[in-house]
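Cross-check.
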Amino acid sequence: MAIKVLIADDEEAILGIMANKVAAQGYAVTTARDGQEAWNKIVSENPDVIILDIAMPKMDGWSL
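Predicted model, tokenized:
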């Protein structure tokens, strides 16, 4: 079973690049575009690793 990685960033270009690079290494990648979406995915998908931006809308990385 692949390790599940959640990547959260509000900048689409960065999110896409990071998701592609991590997925290319064989990890199962889920993405979120703001802190609230990231929180929802943490609760529902229980990722093994979380990579997140600090400055995001709705909930910042520190609060998350």
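Strands lie at 4-8, 28-32, 49-52. The helical segments are 12-24, 35-45. Passed to J.P. for a second look.
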